[in-house]
Every structure is written in C-alpha cells, then in structure tokens.
Amino acid sequence: MQTTDLFPVHRARSAWWLPIALTITVSATVAGCTSAPPAAPSATAPPATAPASTAGAGQPGATAEQAGFAAWLAAFAPQALAAGIRPDTVRHVLAQAQLQPRVVELDRDQPEFTRTPWAYLDGAVSAQRIAQGQAKRAEHQGALQAAATRYGVPASVITAIWGMESNYGSNFGSFRTVDALATLAYEGRRRDWARAELLAALRIIDLGDIAPEAMVGSWAGAMGHTQFLPSVFLAHAVDADGDGRRDIWGSIPDVAASTARFLADAGWQPQEPWGTEVRLPPGFGHARAELNVRQSAAQWADEGLRTVDGQPLPALASAAVLEPAGARGPAFLVGQNFRTILRYNNSTSYALAVALLAQRLDGGPGVVADWPRGLQPLSREQTRQLQAALNARGFATGTPDGVLGPATRAGLRQYQQSRGLVADGYPTLEVLQGLVGGAPAK
Fold first, then answer.
1. What is the crossing angle of helices 117-124 and 348-361, to 10°?
2. How far apart are CA 408 and CA 393, in angstroms?
3. pTM recorded for the entire structure
4. Across-strand partners of 176?
5. Are the beta carbons of 236 and 261 closer than 8 angstroms?
6. Rounded (10°) CA dihedral 238, 211, 39, 96
7. DSSP collapsed to 3 states, the chain
8. 227 in the Ramachandran plot: left (φ > 0), alpha (ψ -120 to 50) or beta?
9. Are 153 and 260 in contact (CB under 8 A)?
10. What is the mean pLDDT of each run of 10 residues along the chain (442 residues)?
11. 9 contacts: CB under 8 Å, gap ≥ 6
12. How far apart are CA 32 and CA 408, in angstroms?
C-alpha cells in the first residue's frame, strides 16, 4: 500500500542464479520433505513485462553486486525453509529472484520538495478521477456493494482507495514482487522489514493464491489493485468470488472485499462519517489542530465549530481538528474513520484525498475554503535548516532530517508562540528567514 509512482521494469529472465547451491541447501535442511506445492493458479492479472537480462553470477560479465546478491539468496534459503516455505518454492521462485537496481534507486530517492496539500489533492481528486471512479463503481456495483454490506465500509470509500492506489487498476506496477522484496532485503536499508515481507510473499505462492509470474506490483512490494503488502494480504485478503483463491490482481470481488475487510479490521466505524470541512471560531487556538487532540464533536461544537455551510457537526465520538496548510487554509474535523484510512497509508494528505474522493463519488462537495496557493513549499534542505535552527534556540524537533513530523510542528509552534505569531506549526519561507536570518538556502 503506497502512493509512490510506479516504474515498470523490462527485462528477460536469465539463469544467473544456477551456480547457487540451493539444491544442496534444501536437501540438507529438509531431508525427507517431498511434499509438492499446490498447482500454481492460472494468472488472472496482466502478465509482468519481461525485464532486461542481467548477467549471471559466476558467468562472464557478472557484476560484484550481482554476485553478492546471489550469495545473499543462497544464505537466505535456509531461513526461508526454516520459516516453513516449501522446498520447491525456494528452488524455483526464491532462487530465480533477480536484483533490481531500479528498486534500490527508488528506495533511496527522496524528492527535493515536498508537495503542498493542495497540489496533492489537485491530482488525487481530479475531475477525471472522479468521473472514472463513478463509472467504475457503476460497472462493479455488485462486488462493491457486497463488500460494503459485509464489512460496513461504504462502496465510495472502497472505490476511492482503488482509485488512489492504482488508478482503478490501470497501474499497479510491473515489478515482480519477489524480485523487489529480495532486492530491498539484500540492499539493507530496511532489511528486517523486507525479509519479513519476502517470506510473506513466498507463503502466498505456497498457498496457491497467485502464480509467481503473476505476483506483480510496485517497487516497494505493494501488490494488486489496492496495493496490499504481502503481510497485509495474508492477514486480510478475502476470497469473495468463491474460486478458492484470494486474487487482488484479477478479481474485483476479491479486491473490494479485501480492501473493506482491512478497513473494518483497522477500526472502521460504520455509523460515523470520516469527518467534514469546518469553520473555526474567532480566537481558535491553532496549536490544538493536531490529530492527537481529540474530543467529541459535541464538545467542539460548544467551542463554536460549525460545518463550512453552517450546519451542525456530524456525530463523531472522538474528533480532531486538521489544518493541512496551517491557519491560512481549510480546516477539517476528522474522526475515527479518518484515522482508519491513515492505517492504509500514514499520510494526512493521502487520507484526506481518499475521504474527499469518496465524498465526490457520492455527489458531495469538494473543499470550499481557499488554499493558500501563494505559499511555497520548503525543500528538504530548507526543512533541515528549520529543524536545526529550532533546536539551536531550544525548541526541540529531534534530529534534523528534512521531514516535517509532529515533533517539528510542536517545536515550530513553541517558537511561533514565543514570537507572538499564529502557532499553527506550518513552515513557511518567512518563518525560516526569521529563524536563520537572511534568505535561506534553496
């Protein structure tokens, strides 16, 4: 599950892995184990595109990196066997994994500038995506409504996640999942996480839910129409069409039910909306606009909050105020279901996009208040400067990393309060200039 751009890889399968002594390893580790895996299901997803060939380790032209990857695969094979992965899967799937340099590049790549909330939403909740989503919901009304009825998650929300994750199935990636996760496990930045997900992917193949060549997805291992990680698939995927397989690559009933079940398991409250856009009363303390500052909608109403059209607030048992662009932009009151969407992708812009897209699919309004489109986003280096300057002045933000998180917003709010500014925790060039003096580096 993720929203990063997907980059297809075109390659041809080679036999560079053959020198690995996996057959010996398998025999020594699971002597007497002769059970065969279930027959691979027919591929119902679009076939993975053939990748560009890589020179074999131990063959002329092999790189040191490929040789290191081959050695890593050989060392990892006993761990896979010990975890219960079938010997044939280790031999014929894990052993054929190929190093993907592009995966490493994408994993290490960090955009210089973060996207503003309004720029993100402009693309995520575009007129085209709304129209396409309404058409897809009508086309698959039976499957979506069945999932909604079974799990209590609105069909519009399921459809919105489908649109966000793969543009309704038009782009869920063409990286072979085992290749991508093996590469990430070998590369090492997120080694433990990637190894666990790789084992989960191999277990899915063992269970017969998908053929290895049809298990494709993003460079980070997220798979299918709604981009489940393998561990999420094992915990939440559903065989809704009754064919004996949980197919999030080719079966829309399975996709819809699996997505709805994940949200239900994550805490979706059928009786509550996700939230609503609100107008804040004069003198509202913007430092309280954080997801961990929660009270009932009735309590917020007592403080003067109203919906953007002046109506009473919806019934939310535990609600927080969200100001994605600070005090100069729109404000939202969000409840448990917004936090549940964050379990899918821990980004407030993402969760807001899903919520607003679902609202538009149901014929509801978009954002009414104006975004402060004149504000420029800080680059990662500028955000590091901001964090370092706040730390130097005693406003703790943690280790400067260029990522705006709760600690940075808290430190920035303390600084803003000390200067008599609106303490909304939203970083601007003006604030940065006030902290470091002069024009900040670009």
1. 40
2. 13
3. 0.84
4. 216
5. yes
6. -140
7. CCCCCCCCCCCCCCCCCCCCCHHHHHHHHCCCCCCCCCCCCCCCCCCCCCCCCCCCCCCCCCCHHHHHHHHHHHHHHHHHHHCCCCHHHHHHCHHHCCCCHHHHHHHHCCCCECCCHHHHHHHHCCHHHHHHHHHHHHHCHHHHHHHHHHHCCCHHHHHHHHHHHHCCCCCCCCEEHHHHHHHHHHHCCCHHHHHHHHHHHHHHHHHCCCCHHHCEECCCCCECCCCECHHHHHHHCCCCCCCCCCCCCCCHHHHHHHHHHHHHHCCCCCCCCCEEEEECCCCCCHHHCCCCCCECHHHHHHCCCEECCCCCCCCCCCEEEECCCHHHCCEEEECHHHHHHHHHCCCHHHHHHHHHHHHHHCCCCCCCCCCCCCCCCCEHHHHHHHHHHHHHCCCCCCCCCCCCCHHHHHHHHHHHHHCCCCCCCCCCHHHHHHHHCCCCCC
8. left
9. yes
10. 37 34 39 35 35 42 84 97 97 96 88 84 97 98 98 98 97 95 92 97 98 95 98 98 97 98 98 97 94 97 96 96 96 98 95 98 97 92 95 95 91 94 93 77 42
11. 49, 51, 52, 100, 102, 174, 175
12. 57
Tokens of 148: 């909604």
For residue 278, report the phi and psi dihedrals to the nearest 5 degrees: -130, 165
Which residue in this structure is represented by tokens 């949200």? Answer: 263
Residue listed under structure tokens 């812009």: 349
Residues in the chain: 442
User: Rounded CA gap, 236 and 161, in Å?
Assistant: 15
Report the C-alpha gap between 6 and 338 in whole angstroms: 25
Nearest to 55 by CA among 11, 92, 89: 11
Q: What is the pLDDT of residue 62?
A: 62
Place of tokens 């500014």: 421
